[in-house]
Design goal:
alpha/beta, two-stranded antiparallel ribbon, 36% helix
Length: 274
């Protein structure tokens, strides 16, 4: 199992669980700073490696009128500040080749959104930056098909790859998680991330936006860690019911500590067994 260095955080092998967390989209600077501060405090208290996540642009929203974020320039400025002020590695999505160069100058790891996991030119462009890449498996892909996306990135000589499971389409407006997918993807030798909050999303389930079932995030997270993963991915917010993006499947900051203590205990048990 390879180990990927994401700034000061190492992920993979037999290393302890890593948390990728933050709001779905960058709504404003103050909100991101408050969430980053709370997450940093929790990570230090629990001894949990943390990568801060927030999207400068959500180009795949359901409706043309949906909030997308603050855009490339302002979003990267805020992520750079979080990176410096809190000494945290940062991750965000890139949706177009034109975003890759600027994003790579700030981000410690570039993320490929699930809907774009087959976009050859985009995968090659992020690979060519030499930065770590988080490849989210498309909702339409079988776990063994992720090898083709891996091949597009590694064709550039870049082997710093994480693979993320975020559920698979199951009928209309619904996702399910097959825990076998985590095992199959981990057999590639790359670290695997379980995106628990997107896995409980109900795509387009609210008509002009997605719905979600955040009450199942804890159970799925515990199951994934027991199965064996290298990191969890949680979207979090100080007021999820009023979040501008993915609120129904985001976790309240107040709920994080006991959930993290549980998954960290499970992770330690699983990895102690070799």
């Amino acid at each position: 199992m390879s180990v990927v260095e994401i700034g000061s955080v190492c992920c993979g092998g037999d290393l302890p669980l890593v948390l990728f967390a933050g709001p779905c989209a960058i709504e404003n600077e103050g909100l991101c700073l408050r969430i980053a501060e709370r997450l940093k405090s929790l990570s230090e208290e629990l001894g949990l490696p943390l990568v801060f996540k927030a999207s400068f642009d959500k180009a795949n929203r359901t409706s043309v009128s949906s909030f997308r974020g603050l855009g490339l320039e302002e979003g990267l400025r805020i992520l750079q500040r979080i990176k410096q002020d809190f000494e945290l590695p940062v991750i965000s999505d890139v949706h177009e080749i034109s975003q890759v160069k600027a994003a790579a100058e700030v981000l410690d790891i570039l993320q490929i959104p699930a809907f774009l996991s087959r976009q050859t030119d985009l995968l090659v462009a992020v690979g060519e930056t030499g930065k770590p890449v988080n490849l989210k498996k498309g909702q339409f892909l079988a776990p063994w098909d992720i090898e083709h996306g891996i091949g597009k990135i590694t064709s550039t000589g870049n082997n710093q790859i994480l693979l993320t499971e975020r559920g698979v389409s199951f009928g209309y407006n619904n996702l399910v998680t097959d825990m076998r997918s985590l095992v199959i993807m981990r057999e590639t030798g790359y670290p695997v991330v379980f995106d628990a909050t997107h896995s409980v999303q109900l795509p387009g389930g609210a008509g002009g936006s997605s719905a979600g079932q955040r009450q199942f995030v804890g159970a799925l997270s515990r199951a994934a860690v027991a199965t064996g993963v290298d990191a969890l991915f949680w979207e979090v917010h100080e007021d999820p019911d009023n979040a501008l993006c993915d609120g129904p499947n985001s976790l309240p900051l107040t709920d994080l500590k006991p959930m993290l203590q549980q998954v960290m205990a499970i992770d330690a048990l699983v990895k102690s067994q070799g």
